[in-house]
Specification:
Layout (H helix, E strand, L loop, with lengths): L3 E2 L4 E2 L3 E3 L4 E2 L4 E2 L3 E3 L4 E2 L4 E4 L15 E4 L4 E2 L4 E3 L6 E4 L4 E2 L4 E2 L4 E2 L4 E2 L4 E2 L4 E2 L4 E2 L4 E2 L4 E2 L4 E2 L4 E2 L7 E3 L6 E2 L1 H6 L6 H10 L6 H17 L6
Parallel strand pairs: 1-4, 2-5, 3-6, 4-7, 5-8, 6-9, 7-10, 8-11, 9-12, 10-13, 11-14, 12-15, 13-16, 15-18, 16-19, 17-20, 18-21, 19-22, 20-23, 22-24
Antiparallel strand pairs: 24-25
Length: 227
């Protein structure tokens, strides 16, 4: 196993690493935490503290698990907290968490998500694949941020954002064309535009699968959707 862990880092019991991870100075990781391969975890990161839940502020988190996948970058002063209500707080693959990001209890961060500096998520929030949260966003608890969507700088996200949506406070949802090009959805561009701006349900299989997943999770969240 070839992990580079700085000697000042504190790694608690029941922390399992895959190979080729880097852990920076003064980082603290409590278990139970499972970390995959090729992750870069910067200095002064804290992983595995109890969730900040006012309904049960002193709950026993000793068996509450965090799972971090592969090829993630977690930058300095970011905190990732244990679950309170779900089985996991989870960071999947190729996620980039920049400086000072707050990942709360029970959050699920899907593949290829980018969270920029000083973003704070509320508990039980879900970021679906390819989401981009710009500088200083605040995301309400229980929110579902749809696949390949983006929230603008300083946005207070109070509703769910639909797939491929661009949310800028005070404006109607527009289309995140950058994500369409970046993630290879050019062939479905017209369907995406019709879905977001006209409410037309997609017909192509992979786009329909995205919309169905978002709608299922959004309904379960009991939160409204931006349009």
């Amino acid at each position: 196993m070839t992990n580079k862990i700085h000697p000042t880092a504190i790694i608690g019991p029941d922390v399992i690493f895959g190979d080729d991870n880097e852990v920076g100075p003064y980082t603290v990781i409590y278990g139970p935490t499972e970390i995959g391969r090729r992750n870069i975890i910067g200095p002064h990161v804290t992983i595995g503290t109890p969730g900040q839940d006012t309904r049960n502020a002193r709950y026993d988190s000793s068996s509450c698990k965090i799972k971090i996948g592969n090829d993630n970058i977690i930058r300095e002063y970011t905190g990732i907290q244990k679950p309170c209500y779900r089985d996991l707080t989870e960071i999947r693959d190729r996620v980039h968490l920049m400086q000072g990001v707050h990942i709360p209890h029970d959050a699920i961060i899907h593949d290829d998500v980018v969270v920029t500096p000083m973003v704070a998520l509320g508990g039980l929030s879900i970021l679906l694949p390819g989401v981009n949260l710009a500088l200083g966003c605040l995301v309400h608890q229980y929110s579902v941020v749809g696949h390949y969507s983006i929230a603008g700088m300083g946005a207070a996200v109070m509703k769910n954002i639909p797939p491929f949506g661009k949310y800028i406070p005070g404006k109607p949802i527009s289309v995140n064309h950058y994500a369409i090009d970046k993630f290879g959805y050019q062939a479905e561009r017209d369907e995406i535009v019709a879905y977001l701006l006209g409410g037309v349900r997609p017909v192509s299989a992979r786009l329909l699968a995205i919309v169905d997943e978002f709608e299922r999770l959004s309904a379960a969240s009991q939160r409204n959707v931006y349009n």
